[in-house]
Amino acid sequence: MAVSAPPAAPAALPAPATSAGGRGRAPKRRGPRRTPGDRAIDVVIAAGLVLLTLATLYPFYYSVVVSLSTPAAVLQPGLHLWPQEFSLESYRIILSDSGIFGAYRNTIVRTVVATALALILTAMVAYPLAQPEFPHRRLLNFLLVFSMLFSGGFIAMYLLVRNLGMLDTLWALVLPGAVGAFNVIILRNFFQAIPRELIDSARIDGAGEMRILTRIVLPISKPALAVVALWVALANWNAWFDALLYISDPDKQFLQKYFARGILLGSVKG
Q1: 104 vs 109, 110, 125, 178, CA distance in Å?
Q2: What is the mean pLDDT of the chain?
Q3: Share of the chain above pLDDT 70, in %
Q4: Cβ–Cβ < 8 Å for 247, 173
Q5: Is position 87 within any domain?
Q6: Residue 21 lies inside a defined structural domain of this protein
Q7: 206 shares a domain with 221
Q8: Residue 58's domain spans which residues?
Q9: Total structural domains within the chain
Q10: pLDDT confidence of 268, banded at 50, 70, 90?
Q11: pLDDT digit string (tens) for 5-15?
């Protein structure tokens, strides 16, 4: 009697693809499908950002275009997108005046000194006000906020600067605004957010308050210090009214006062 052959074994399933390390490759996850409405919103946002960027950069571009044009061409009505009657006369006039280089030097020195001094003094004022155990802390914080609402005015400040003998000096521009009440509040609030455990552990280890401030608090507070430094630097770079009050020596004039004088002279001649 004939014996039937055993059934054939089922075909083996294909082995999953493996990576170079021998592990199976996980299937790629696809994000949610984007609808035409989502793409339209992206286009609108991108177009708005491009327009905003152009509106921000156009004043700088316009200044360059005007500086490369003749005064008569600039006075012509219309939108100036490129130089009209190309001329380098404006640059020749500016560079021929040696006063602008001294004004740039004085402005840079003032900005650097004022920013460094403001950071040091503001941090030293804000740190004790951020400590709960500091005596009369509430009263000093109240006086700090009160100084933001009321001040002695320009006459009192001018008399103080004159009596201290700081007229025609850099300190007349740097010291009066070295400690701003708003900057102190910003740093004080940031210092209060630092975990108390860090400061208490440093005190237990024998660190003094100045060491805690310089080695623990200030390194953690770099973002707040950078914001304050930016504000102070911009304020001193753009300041001109205090130089108009306290500086009368033409060799010590600053950039903004130099430009203001040029505008006034141009308006008088015009």
Answers
A1: 9, 10, 31, 21
A2: 83
A3: 84
A4: yes
A5: yes
A6: no
A7: yes
A8: 36-95
A9: 2
A10: very low
A11: 555 555 555 55
For 58-72, b/e burial (b = at least 16 CB within 10 A) is eeeeeeebbebbbee
- How many percent of the chain have pLDDT more than 90? 40
Same domain, 159 and 49: no
Do 89 and 121 lie in one domain? The reply is no
State the pLDDT confidence band at 1, using cuts at 50, 70 and 90.
very low
129 lies in the same domain as 148: yes
Q: SS3 sequence, the chain? A: CCCCCCCCCCCCCCCCCECCCCCECCCCCCCCCCCHHHHHHHHHHHHHHHHHHHHHHHHHHHHHHHHCCCHHHHCCCCCCCCCCCCCCHHHHHHHHCCHHHHHHHHHHHHHHHHHHHHHHHHHHHHHHHCCCCCCCHHHHHHHHHHHHHCCCHHHHHHHHHHHCCCCCCCHHHHCCCCCCHHHHHHHHHHHHCCCHHHHHHHHHCCCCHHHHHHHHHHHHCHHHHHHHHHHHHHHHHHCCHHHHHHCCCHHHCCHHHHHHHHHHHHHHHC
Tens digits of residue pLDDT in 124-140 = 999 999 988 889 888 99
Q: What is the mean pLDDT of residues 181-204?
A: 92
Structure tokens at 63: 């200044």
- Phi, psi values for residue 88, rounded to 5°: -105, 20
